[in-house]
Write a structure and sequence with these properties.
This protein has about 280 residues and is α+β, with helices and mostly antiparallel strands. The protein is about 45% helix and about 25% strand.
Length: about 280
């Protein structure tokens, strides 16, 4: 497990990476009341939030952006396993620092995260959604960078600014465009079907029929909820899974490509390089 805290002015960035051959629980907490946004990379870990005898659970965390208020009584428990590594980047600021932020930033918090500024409990979940392609790319870069020292601080300052800008931008756009609960449940089911059948995914019409939705509505709603068209999303998840397989060792590049549904090694390598900025063979270097 690797946990790193990076302090930048009134914000703290928490970078968490955890892999395990056997199931384990990664626990973290904050020493004082904070408002934070957690951005989840690959792994799809199960999250439990425990406080004052209560518990809230979050499934399907892969690609999730989740805001919250939490005080020192709250414990965050990530359930990590061999096929569910943890990649989580948290940007947090203490409640007492909010008023000292630049005026425009304070206005964004007040407009879009007001319930977190006036919490009624130890833990208050805020808006959550699955990240856009641009946000996912920014999170991927954070976990793949190899910088040190001052260059690393500059890098994370820029990533923090980009992620918060994207997060508030997405909140502003979606404020009046939320999908019905029934539609969200069907979309989550569609996502589960795709991830369970990466090698041979169903066609769009079959997927739509399986979740009880017409094809056009599936295409429009899926992109609105997850930030990508159906099969662009699937490709992204295939590449994330392949990266995990290669990085964990014991799986060749060719085997990883096959396991996530690529017959052509050259097509796989090209798509991989476009997403991560380097070829799959460079992971072991």
């Amino acid at each position: 497990m690797n946990r790193e805290f990076i302090d930048i002015k009134d914000f703290t960035i928490l970078v968490e990476l955890a892999e395990a051959k056997e199931a384990l629980v990664d626990i973290c907490y904050f020493d004082e009341p904070v408002i934070a946004v957690a951005f989840y990379g690959s792994g799809n870990v199960h999250l439990e939030v425990e406080y004052a005898g209560e518990q809230q659970s979050f499934n399907h965390t892969q690609g999730l952006a989740l805001s919250f208020y939490a005080d020192a009584e709250v414990q965050f428990k990530h359930h990590v396993s061999a096929d569910r590594p943890l990649e989580c980047l948290v940007i947090a600021t203490s409640l007492r620092h909010i008023e000292s932020l630049p005026e425009q930033e304070v206005a964004l918090f007040q407009e879009l995260l007001d319930p977190l500024l006036h919490p009624k409990g130890h833990f208050v979940p805020g808006p959550q959604f699955y990240m856009s392609a641009a946000m996912q790319h920014t999170v991927d870069q954070a976990f793949r960078n190899q910088l040190e020292g001052k260059a690393k601080m500059m890098f994370f300052r820029s990533q923090m600014t980009a992620l918060l800008a994207h997060y508030f931008g997405e909140l502003s756009k979606s404020a009046d465009q939320s999908l019905p609960h029934d539609t969200l449940q069907r979309l989550d089911k569609a996502r589960e079907i795709l991830l369970a059948n990466m090698e041979e995914p169903p066609g769009l019409s079959d997927l739509a029929a399986e979740i009880g939705m017409n094809t056009n509505k599936l295409k429009q709603s899926f992109k609105a909820h997850f930030g990508l068209p159906v099969f662009r999303y699937l490709q992204n998840q295939r590449l994330e899974k392949a990266h995990e397989l290669i990085r964990s060792g014991g799986t060749t590049v060719q085997e990883a490509a096959w396991q996530v549904g690529y017959d052509s090694l050259s097509s796989f390598s090209k798509a991989f390089a476009q997403k991560f900025g380097y070829r799959p063979s460079e992971i072991r270097a």
